[in-house]
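hiii, so i know i said id send this last week but things got crazy w the move. better late than never?? heres the sequnce for the chain we talked about at the cafe, plus the structure i predicted for it. fair warning i was half asleep when i ran it
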Amino acid sequence: MPSGSFDIACQDWRAYAACSKYDPDLFFAPGALEHKLAKKVCRACPVRQQCLAYAMDEPVDHGIWGGLTERERRRYRRLAGAGDWRALIA
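okay and structure toks below
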């Protein structure tokens, strides 16, 4: 992966996502086992933070993004309120 930051708006980071090598259904499946497997892929992903930032800022309310389920992302948004959700996850 090239050094430097990625522009989340243009989504350059997606080209380096570990999930691109897997069936997308894994990251959008409703089951706990699938969530566990998807999160394992996310833990080793070089662009996990960019992926999570995209899902939190859009907001994306479905699937596993950046290693968090939709329920987990909603919780962090609620906890952050008007503040920055990044401080809660860092």
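btw The radius of gyration is 13 Å. thought thatd interest u
miss u guys!!
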